[in-house]
From TrEMBL:
Residues 14-38 form the UPF0033 domain. SUPFAM superfamilies: SirA-like. It comes from Nocardiopsis codii. InterPro entries: TusA-like, TusA-like_sf. Pfam families: TusA. Belongs to the sulfur carrier protein TusA family. This is Sulfurtransferase TusA family protein. Signal peptide: none annotated.
Amino acid sequence: MPEYPPSQAPLVTVEAVGRKCPIPIIMLAARLGEVPIGSVIAVTADDPAARADIPAWCRMKMHQFVVEVPLGRGSAFHIRRMY
């Protein structure tokens, strides 16, 4: 896993590999409150739709999509909670 500055490292990872959209987004929304405002949460997902759906959800909900990190299976999508 790459090293991140402390402000970029996810505090919580939501494991959604093997789940089809919209389940990873539903899981993300349910757990977003576990991280403080300004902190990063990650969602792991291998559904190809997640690559478009998670950044779109961030834009719609006004959270910041930080980065997609490829994994052995799927990717980790990092989101910064903005409110």
